[in-house]
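FIELD: query
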Amino acid sequence: MKHIKPIYYLFFIMCFLFCCEAEDNSNPNQVFISNTDLEAFSENFGSDIQRDFLGTIVDTNNNPIAGVSVSVGSSNATTDSNGIFIIRNASVQSHFAYIKASKEGFINASRSVVPSTGTNKIEIMMLPENSVGNVSSGTQETINLPNSTSVKLNGSYVDENGDAYTGNVNVIMHYLNPEDENMALQMPGMLYAADADNEERLLQTFGMLAIDLRGENGEDLNIAEGSTAEISAPIPQSLMSSAPATIPLWSFDEDYGVWVEEGEAVLENGNYVGTVRHFSFWNYDVPVDLVNYCATFIDGEGNPLSNLSVIITSPTIGSSGGSTNENGEVCGLIPAEESLELAAGIQDTCGLNTLFETSIGPFSTDSSDEFVISDTTLSEVVIETVTGFFVNCDQESITDGYVKLSYGDVEVIDFVNDGDFEITFYRCNESTDFTLTGFDYTSFQSTDTITYNFSTPLTDMGRLASCNDFAYNYLYFQVGDYPPSDLIELPGTPFSDNSFVCRYQETILRTGISLLTFSPYNIDLDFNNFNGIGIYSGDNGVGDFSGPETFANIKIDGMIQLGNGIPGSRARNFVGTAEVLSFGEVGEIVEISFTGTIDVFQFQNINGANELVLIEEDASVNGFMHLIRDL
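FIELD: result
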């Protein structure tokens, strides 16, 4: 497979890099009043629709930010401890959705996207509200960053009510570098703009500045009417050869979520320098014509291919990309009237590899395409589907929640719909281990982080429960093609004093369900010479529990009764591994995952005697235990 450049964002909002020339036919320091009418411009956003949003908000160290206020249209949400927000059925437009985020201590952040029909996954990186310098009203002063970014202030300020402000002023300023892979996450909106003639434009950026002013008591300040400031930002060395002598200057409108043309900047000694009348995000960009574009990817049987990384490359602009949702769809803005190259691939722990390539365009109007990736091509990768059912402590289906699957450095977050979840995931053959956690967004409760192994191509996690402090017994397992089985003991409602077993005595740890009368089966997972957290091997048999060997063994009685009603069956001769993930004290939690193979036997009447007959050899087995330790 070919390797293609990694993607660090979810929709076509990447900074376009291209060579462009512009005529120097105006005074670069001239400030002009834009003729942009954003209310009229918003007619380009399309018709009213409803869409679902699942987003992650992090800080500049990629740590999740809890308690962020998020809005999409009239719908509101707050991020949980994982920095996740969920907004369903938000009212947006068919070509435009604007997501706003705010929290004390951070600059207001946002994302604008072309909404797709499925889940719209949003990622925002908020910039800290850290002061880089102080000035005083009535004094002309310049604040500089180490990279030659600067702002020259003339000392005339107003508060958010338009009243004159006197006193000290804290200056908050960030430079956003087009070469930085995080710029697409940190910038507001997307690179979509209204030019001075109120026309739609797609932007190519040569750099951005975020500037906010705060008074002594934390009040929002801005430049007084009739006053100006000079801003200057460096041009990255890789863009210097394509940087025009003058370039349009754009400000971000936080009400509408688009960039607005408001002047020009001139190239001076490696910096773009311009004059502005107010502060917000400012952008040095060249505009191009655009169209809306959606691409859908399916396999040979018509099934949607989710979580594919998609890249579109322009011969003049460069590359931009996104990821397909559960419907196999990705949408965004692309340059008009250009022949483009499209590539789709997978991102896993082995890297990003191309599965599909084709030419598209040129497009003069909004367009969409459907592409089929052949089964032969898909056979080159391992496609995993992970399913399960997510409930709360009352065994009710969770309707407002999500699950998070982690495999190496790759993380996938998806909705839970009426308790059900399904994640399609691509991986290489380096490892079969993954973790999965379920989160109830309504109650802010979650499951444990479960370490598991893929049972390719389908891994059924069974029933997951979200309870306070995880104070419950839970066991799940599946053998071969027989239905998966799970049992849960909720806090305060034990099935039986001796039902769930988790006892450590001398050198043996015994876990499972001990009473056959309690359920259709009796499962025991025992460890010989147990010595704590770690991986234990099972090697085809019960083993000598009085000997020095360290091993794990699983025995399941009554197992087939779950599938076809045949009584007296059992499974044993476990070959595989059992991993003790956590081992608490008495009354605390013990967690174990196991995977491998097991033989299935059945009692049959042979010549008047009941004898165990092997009916399936080396059937796959995997499971998970979350138990309160008894002894």
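FIELD: remark
The chain has a mean pLDDT of 85.
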